[in-house]
Automatic annotation (TrEMBL):
This is GyrI-like small molecule binding domain-containing protein. It comes from the Bacteria. InterPro entries: GyrI-like, GyrI-like_CCH_Lin2189-like, Reg_factor_effector_dom_sf. It comes from Erysipelothrix larvae. Residues 18-198 form the GyrI-like small molecule binding domain. Coiled coil: none annotated.
Length: 207
């Protein structure tokens, strides 16, 4: 039976439109890091370095290789951890050119470094993205987080972060870093800005 993250991992990917505390375990990811405005073509190039590898892993049995423990699954959504350069932190407004990011796509547990390397070679044989060599295979643990679903434009996210900050203050929680994670449930190329669904996640500890 096909593993559908939308159905079987709702607590991680489909929270409600109000803050909640969640413990997110260690998971495997394809990751790539960059800096700059996410509306610029360079950001799209980073995304385009991840998906061919993710789909090469997903389609391995069709190319005659079935990794040990393989099961059918839906490719996971794009995620991104966002922060600012030192210059960006000192500015009194958000300059998107000063954004730093690591974008990622989660991988099933059966994926190993060997599986990743094999998929990377497959992706390189079909595409010529110069950023393929910047993609890493990593295990990342988000740990204790406050998260909520943000509905609407990315530019309206501060309103949701304000609600999350209030929840943290009321529940004796504090952020461990100014970085935050976003999980893109909607495809921004196909969905109107006001209907975009994005999971917002802050890394926290109990005070």
């Amino acid at each position: 039976m096909k593993h559908e993250w939308r159905k079987e991992e709702k607590s991680i990917y489909l929270p409600k439109q109000k803050p909640e505390l969640i413990e997110v375990p260690k998971m495997k990811y394809l990751t790539i890091s960059g800096q700059g405005n996410p509306n610029d073509p360079g950001f799209q190039k980073h995304i385009e370095a991840l998906y061919p590898i993710a789909y090469a892993i997903r389609m391995m049995p069709k190319s005659g290789v079935t990794p040990e423990g393989y099961f059918e699954y839906t490719v996971y959504p794009l995620e991104g951890v966002w922060s600012l350069t030192e210059k960006g932190i000192e500015m009194d407004h958000l300059d998107k050119n000063e954004l730093m990011y690591t974008i990622m796509i989660r991988q099933p547990d059966f994926v190993t470094h060997e599986v990743f390397q094999s998929a990377l070679l497959k992706a390189k044989s079909k595409n010529d993205n110069p950023l393929f060599d910047d993609v890493k295979f990593e295990e990342i643990e988000d740990g204790l987080c406050v998260q909520m679903m943000h509905l609407g434009s990315y530019d309206d996210e501060p309103q949701s972060f304000e609600i999350m900050a209030q929840y943290m203050a009321e529940n004796g929680l504090e952020r461990t870093t100014k970085m935050h994670k976003e999980i893109y449930i909607s495809d921004f190329r196909k969905v109107a800005p006001e209907k975009l669904k994005t999971v917002l996640r802050c890394f926290v500890r109990k005070q």
